[in-house]
# Entry
Amino acid sequence: MSGLGALFLRDIRIAIRIGGGAMIGVLFFMLVVTLMPFAIGPDLALLTRIGPAILWLGALLASLLALDRLLAADQEDGSLDLLTMGNAPLELAVGVKALAHWLTTALPLVIAAPLLALFLNLDGAATGAVAATLLVGTPALTFIGLIGAALTVTLRRGGLLLPVLILPLAVPVLIFGVAASNAAVVGPVTFGTPFTILCALTLMSLVVGPFAAAAALRAGQE
Amino acid sequence: MALIDLANPTRFLSLTGRILPWLAAATALVFAYGFWLTAGAPDDYQQGATVKIMFLHVPSAWLAMFGWVVMSIAALGTLVWRHPLADMAAKAAAPIGAAFTLICLITGSLWGRPMWGTYWVWDARLTSVFVLFLMYLGVIALWRTIDDPTRAGRAAAILTLVGAINIPIIKFSVDWWNTLHQPASVVKMSGPAIHPTILLPLLVMAIAFTLLFITLHLAAMRNEILKRRIRSMHMMQAEAAPGR
# Structure
């Protein structure tokens, strides 16, 4: 287990020290949110209504941007081969890597979301709902993305194929994330119903993601 | 004859070579019968003649999902049993399934224009079928991106199985989210809710479409086997080339 712990710490250290990955993601998120009023118009009432959807889309795109690097750097320097041959099960190893990736790229987005909600004129309840759904939903995005990253890691143009493979699978997460946020503000249903389904989707991706990704890596290495 | 007997591609080629003409003829016959029944089916009291779009729309919707199920079973064959033909079955099914999904979407929107007043709404069933179409395109893109067929087969198999989680969501979307698309009316616990004069042509057309799918699928698998033989012949030729 200490090997997995070391891997976890290593990935977090690399993410913090090199490249400023987390900040780039937040910056991109901020840019997406800034572009929306230019495209839609500065109508604050309208922005309030579609604010949760904008924040979710921004977070989805920002987490997609970082996925490319989840396994690619390790593939380039050969440490992915070491992980594949190591003592720890590959499923756990990629799971740990995805967890570290979530902590360093997706969690900053969740923390930045309430601040960006101010730009979109969201009130306290809506802001809290968006932050809660993002906190619960982004692990699903990361772990679904893990599958795509593992499938495309050995491909030359993998970065281009990754969103094509991943976005259809991420649609349910987006639907229920936005549905729960909207339900907290206006919706006919209670916040709990879609939020519970969102939790279920995340738990399912936590199970399916590492197994599918490990299988994809083994298939790709041969 | 067990499934494993077909593992030999040569045997598969000779067997399907004998079966295919009969299958194609049967497909044509059932289609002819289906069109004849369709022409004789009465117009709906509300929808008029446009209800006949259903005879194309519903079977292709069934086959859109059936295609992914075929691919999922083939994916299991690739990953679990390493059946040599499973790869080719999965690869051959993807474009056919994508085509039926597209037919379903197009006929659906042509039917939706007079009935609902719009070509497209973001309703649960429509959206999930559209997502299915995108998933088909993703799998086809993955097949085309990886050169080595066996590696491409495994990668596509994993993606197919992960995507298979979406199929029950599509099937039950009309029952879970009660939006514009009508709920299931043929396959349900209390029996079909359609009058026999319309149900019979629908079922015959469904059989015809399924036969068409099987015919196209077997033919595409044969093409895939031949294509791989040519590929390995090229490889051998390149290796044997003098003056390297």
